[in-house]
Amino acid sequence: MKIVFQANRGVYGSPRVHAELQDQGMKCARKRVARLMREQELYAKRPRHRTVTTHSDPEAQVAPNLLQREFGAEQPNTKWAADTTYIWTAEGWLYLAVVLDLFSRMVVGWSMAATQDAALVIQALQMAIARRHPPPGLLHHSDRGSTYTSAGYQAVLAQQGMIVSMSRTADCYDNAAMESVRR
Predict the structure, then answer these.
(1) pLDDT for 49
(2) What is the dihedral of CA 172, 177, 179, 180, to 10 degrees?
(3) Which of 11, 25, 107, 165 is exposed most, by the fewest CB atoms within 10 A?
(4) pTM to 2 decimals?
(5) Cβ–Cβ < 8 Å for 87, 94
């Protein structure tokens, strides 16, 4: 049993070890395999899913960090922050784009899809615009990912008269308000 477990890099749990033993002609009960594995402290290593959600385009036009970690706002619809994360569901991984009003910390726009692209973040931004009707001059802060630097996203921001602010590269603290929403 231990040989089967180790031969499969320690990722097989008792059902797979039992099936492997059966295939090799060894007769044993599934529950016995599970009990013996527990006694020998043989536990399957769970794969870690690491999805990179920020894909920076080196050719993209980036904006300076105008927010400067000032995550408070004096009134609604003056500062928004945006970010993308991923969520495990029964159907697999889904990407969630969120737009947050920094005055109330209220999610004012969101979108979910199986793929992370510019359309995902544009839909979240359009929902926020439709719900809140922000005045021109709103400060919109995001990371430098390719979805936020895309021509389509930048066009929507310009059309609405929003001021663009972006986090510095590899600095999660520049967008800490959004990072805390994910947890």
Answers:
(1) 61
(2) 130
(3) 25
(4) 0.66
(5) yes
**Beta-ladder partners of 100:** 81, 107
* Among the listed residues 110, 109, 116, 124, the one whose alpha carbon sits nearest the alpha carbon of residue 93: 116
- Match 């630097």 to its residue by tokens: 149
Residue 166, both tokens = 């972006």
CA-wise closest residue to 78 among 120, 141, 131 = 141
- In the chain, CATH 3.30.420.10 covers 79-182
Q: pLDDT of the chain along its 183 residues, tens only? A: 778 877 777 778 889 899 989 999 989 899 999 999 899 988 888 766 665 555 556 677 888 888 878 788 889 999 999 999 888 888 788 999 999 999 999 999 999 999 889 999 999 999 999 999 999 999 999 988 889 999 999 999 999 999 999 987 777 777 777 766 655
The answer to whether 43 and 37 are in contact (CB under 8 A) is yes
**Within a 10 A sphere around the Cβ of 133, how many other Cβ atoms?**
9
Question: In the CATH hierarchy, which fold is given to the domain comprising 79-182?
Answer: Nucleotidyltransferase; domain 5 (3.30.420)
Q: H/E element holding 99?
A: strand 92-101
Tell me the pairing of strands 139-142 and 79-89: parallel
